[in-house]
Design a protein that fits this description.
- It is a single chain.
- Helix content is 82%, strand content 0%.
- By secondary structure, it is mainly alpha-helical.
- It has one domain.
- Helix 1 (2-14) runs antiparallel to helix 2.
- The chain starts with a helix and ends with a helix.
- The chain crosses the membrane at residues 26-47.
Length: 50
């Protein structure tokens, strides 16, 4: 799920035709950072189970 969220956020941020408001941009970057942390955590948990 976090991989899909990260991909969508990256696509949305790179494909924008106009610059979003600063508050929205900060929120998007925070959500992207949290999604990437969750993705790394999920991969590490999966790797340590084996």
């Amino acid at each position: 799920m976090s991989a899909a969220t990260s991909g969508w956020l990256i696509y949305d941020m790179t494909g924008a035709t106009e610059a979003p408001r600063q508050a929205l941009a900060v929120l998007q970057y925070c959500l992207l950072a949290l999604a990437l942390v969750a993705l790394v955590g999920s991969v590490l948990m999966y790797a340590t189970e084996k």
